[in-house]
Design a protein that fits this description.
The protein is an alpha/beta fold. The chain is built from 11 helices and 8 strands. The chain has a single domain, classed as TIM Barrel (Alpha-Beta Barrel). Bound molecules: 1,3-dihydroxyacetonephosphate (13P). The site of 1,3-dihydroxyacetonephosphate has 14 residues, from strand 8.
Length: 256
């Protein structure tokens, strides 16, 4: 049985002061309440220690938005998995389309980061997804297959429980336009079939596949109800405590 993962990607928003206020608000809303799934917030690095502290007595988990492949050394500007572990982070977002686009991250480099994270017990959330022109040319499956298989070929299926994929169609990120529930389900089922082919069907059943791209309270229920949608990776709507909490409540009602 896969637990839903409701994850917030704050991107380059919310410095320490704002992040603390926002995380405190979220913790307060859920104080004393049960959440049977997993809730995760991924703030910018500099805000991470503050968010970790705000969530100290809550079930909220924390994650980073990137990590490097080495343990330490002369890599100016980078941070390592051991640093994230020291902060008690559980997750790291890898291969986000913004990193692929603006920082020229390749499938190969992303695969190395995924391997490194898994071997150091930080759960990677691997983002995959096609651009608008690729969708228009009906190439979305081809694109996602290449992004995913590069990683699956380098990772052992024993990590299935800790490996998370986020399908984020680039045309739906920050645009207000979402994939339809049918489009999301079709791609999620395809992703699961690729995992079954590369690893095994047992492993494929364990991997959680999140949807990302303009998820908000108004569309969360229909997306999260899809059979192969195991949660959301939420940008804009995770920057408001009430909208993120509302999506968490929807996940709680859906159960699964
Ligand atoms: P939005 O929810 O703002 O579209 O962002 C999605 C995203 O990129 C999460 O990683």
């Amino acid at each position: 049985m896969r637990k839903l993962l409701v994850a917030g990607n704050w991107k380059m928003n919310a410095g320490p002061t704002e992040a603390k206020v926002l995380a405190d608000e979220m913790a307060e809303i859920w104080k004393g309440k049960q959440f049977s799934h997993e809730a995760l917030i991924c703030p910018p690095y500099v805000s991470l220690p503050f968010v970790v502290k705000s969530f100290r007595d809550s079930f909220f988990k924390t994650g980073a938005q990137n990590v490097y492949t080495e343990d330490n050394g002369a890599y100016t500007g980078e941070i390592s998995t051991s640093m994230l572990k020291e902060l008690t982070c559980d997750y790291v977002i890898l291969g986000h389309s913004e990193r692929r686009e603006y920082f020229q991250e390749t499938d190969e480099f992303i695969a190395q980061k995924v391997s490194k994270s898994l071997s150091d017990s930080i759960r990677p959330i691997l983002c995959v997804g096609e651009k608008l022109d690729e969708r228009k040319a009906d190439k979305q499956k081809e694109v996602v297959e290449k992004q995913l298989n590069t990683v699956l070929n380098q990772v052992d299926e024993k990590h299935a429980d800790d490996f998370v994929v986020a399908y984020e169609p680039v045309w739906a990120i920050g645009t207000g336009e979402t994939a339809s529930p049918e489009q999301a389900q079709e791609m999620h089922a395809f992703i699961r079939s690729l995992i079954a082919d590369s690893w095994s069907s047992d492993a494929a059943e364990k991997v959680r596949i999140l949807y990302g791209g303009s998820m908000k309270p108004a569309n969360a229920e229909e997306l999260l109800s899809q059979k192969d949608v195991d949660g959301g990776l939420i940008g804009g709507a995770s920057l408001k405590a009430d909208s993120f909490s509302e999506i968490m409540s929807i996940a709680e009602q859906i159960g699964k």
